[in-house]
Amino acid sequence: MNLSNWLASLLLMVFCGLLLVSTSGYASKLYLQYTISSDAKNMLQLYNKQMDSFDNKLEMLSKLFLFDCMALDRHQLKYVTYNDYALRRLSLHNLDGSQCSSFDGASGEDTLAPLIHSLSANVSLWVTSGSRNEQNLLVAKWQGEKGSLYVHMEPIVTEAVRHKYCENCVLTAISAVDNPTISFWRGDAALFSQPILFNTRLDNGINIRVYVSAELQSIYYRKVIVPLFLLGLGLGFIALVVIRFFEFRKMSLHSLVEQGILQREFIPYYQPIVDVSTNSLYGCEMLARWKRNGQGLISPMEFIPYVEKSGQILPITEQLIEKAIADVSKLNWGDTQQVISVNIVPDQLEHVEVLANSLAILDQSPLLPSQLAFEVTERKRFTNLAMASQVIEALRLQGIDVKLDDAGTGYGGFSYIQQLDIRSIKIDKMFVETIGTADLKLSLLDSIIAFGREAKMEMIAEGVETEEQSQYLAKHGVTLQQGFYFGRPMPFRDFAYYCKSMVSRKPLTKRFNIPPTLLYNEVDEC
Length: 526
Hints:
Number of helices: 16
Strand order of the largest sheet: 11-12-14-15-16-17-18-19
Strand content: 15-25%
Oligomer: single chain
Distance between the termini: 57 Å
Helix content: 40-55%
């Protein structure tokens, strides 16, 4: 890797790091929210549990008192409060107007504000102001026949959350959903000016809000900025590795193809095209295969799409045509009318010089120009239709036909047939495989066939795999057929045996019951 590539890689990693750092404010908020929410969740569960059990607990507490504020009641008030750390103070309000408390000298409940009027039948929840920094206290009130019991609860959980992360930097506020102006809160009241970190509603109508100071947010910002930068560097490195992998794979494939071209590893396979009206061999389609030295065949899908984009398809096609012409010349095809079809891409038809070498090879062979045909797929777009039309006309003047492959499936539709003056089409497998089904594309197949017959075009059906498909096509006038039903793509040795075996086959005309008016393009047997 050169210096510029190293710098580009370093810049990519730094960019990813800075990109994540730019999100550190949001990330620190999420981190802080997650951290505090775990503590707050415990707090919520405790409050939920306390509130759900208030009715039973207060009922049990009330039975400890006579509601006369005499010696027994005063003793019980102090004893219960002393032995329960969750209670700050207990007070009794008797029907006769007398009051007593576990803490002598404590102010009464005249400053209470209702939080929830009816938590249960006998219990309500109130908020009062304490003497310390005007912080609120949560008070539960039990109302019975003899009087009222007030339970002032210690804010143990909220106090723990308030000072856990830094001094007085978390404020927790509890309010009723239907009365948000009355709240029980612990913390620095100035934090109410900060945005709410998170807000949770309990089933019993209680709403709990948490605020945090800018100082705490800054602490967590500093905690996440370095890990985020390192994470960004890591992600940048991973992205770099992925990019380099695909670049290396691309470069490796390119070099392997180049090596394959130099070592002539690309070989032709042949798939027969049969005229079922005479049971004779119309010809074949040449298909590219890549056989690396010391390895098996490589699937065309592994390299054809790439070499078409890279332009390496041009020398590959040239080599394949040279090999194919040499192969079929051994079968004495020069004495027949059989045709070998070669796949090309639109680029090759838009530059006549590209095909010059292939045509020169044909001139030196015993084959006639009419025995070579080019198939150009409709799946790929032409960029210069006018030039392609001129090249096709020049080839036709020499006797070489150009067929439109995959007709009806690509960019041009049947406009290519008119613009390029195409006189031969190959019907794609996607239409043929609808025969015998209820697929809507079957009507498209019939339309394509009707169009071809009306225009008196040569039609070859691809992908014929069953006798039913072959019979249907033949009865509709498509007698030139290609597919696994007749033979798979095969190396030349197997194709030579196949070609010779065609002589011994029985005619198929009677079996298909083809109307004589539909028979045309008869050729000699192999």
